[in-house]
Amino acid sequence: MDLAGVSLPGSPQARARRFWRWLSFALPPDLLLAATAPIAPEGIDVVSPVLQRVLQDRGYAETHQHIGAGMDFGPFWISALRAIADPKCPSDAFESAGAALDEGRDLGPWLVRAAIARYLLAAYLCRKDRWGGGLYSFVNGEVTNAVVERAGVWGLPVLCLVIGDLLRGALTRSGQHYASVQGLYRRLTDIAYWEPLATTIEYVHKADPIATLVGWDRFGRPSPEMRFLVSAFHHLESNWEQIPL
Q1: Per-residue CA distances from 110 to 13, 82, 115, 138, 172 (Å)
Q2: Total number of domains constituting the chain
Q3: What does the pLDDT look like over 67-86, one tens digit per residue?
Q4: 160: domain range?
Q5: How far apart are CA 167 and CA 107, in angstroms?
């Protein structure tokens, strides 16, 4: 449908907020904002300044909201990263009828593998200048040494399983494998999954496993996730000629 010449209702600011809202349904907002670095804002206001001030001054009530559903995705994401490190969190903890990944039963195993890969990629992006080699040599060198130091020799085949599953796009199905991957994740990241999650956004971000890698502190901006994405985009932009198509 050709929208050329069509006049949309509302002010330019209102239309921009509306477009952003619909765009954020298709792509993660952090990903979109990180792509505009180094001038990326930390967030986008989805309500007008006037409405935001009225809501702050007078307050409001949610007439229908599930418990715990009043947070942005960022705190939920960090909560999930902590939850999957808990030995009491079973592989089917995210089971939900009708959900993707075998009705959610495979979400936990995939999530813990992705969390390990995210941690290793963040470590590489923050240390690649000192390392001097590519990602392959980094994994076979510094990562291998870190796994042996923190998890013992048994952690190496688990790391190979994780990387192999991610590359193949298929899970190695075994409850024992899930527990082993959880153990590697805990030891590699030193994540304090047993501590209560903070109530302020600054300390929530501090609980992100990659916060120390990306040099984030409670007064820092933007979030660890945003810093990670900006570093990733910068690396891809600087090495795009070497990326196989």
Answers
A1: 39, 14, 9, 23, 10
A2: 2
A3: 666 677 778 888 899 999 99
A4: 72-242
A5: 17
CA-CA distance, 147 to 188, in Å (whole number)?
7
Q: Is residue 65 part of a domain?
A: no
Residue 3 lies in a domain: no
45 and 158 together in one domain: no
Q: Specify whether the CB–CB gap between 226 and 43 falls below 8 A.
A: no
Do 114 and 215 lie in one domain? The reply is yes
More confident residue, 160 or 39: 160
Residue among 75, 68, 23 at smallest CA distance from 44? 23
Does residue 183 sit in the same domain as residue 133?
yes
Q: Which pTM was predicted?
A: 0.81
Residues 23-49: pLDDT tens digits? 878 888 778 888 776 655 666 667 777
Say yes or no: 124 and 202 in one domain: yes
For residue 3, pLDDT over 50 is answered with no
Q: Count of alpha carbons within 13 Å of 122, Cβ hemisphere only?
A: 23
Residues 16 and 107 in one domain: no
Residue 228, burial from CB neighbour count under 10 angstroms (0-12, 13-18, 19+): buried
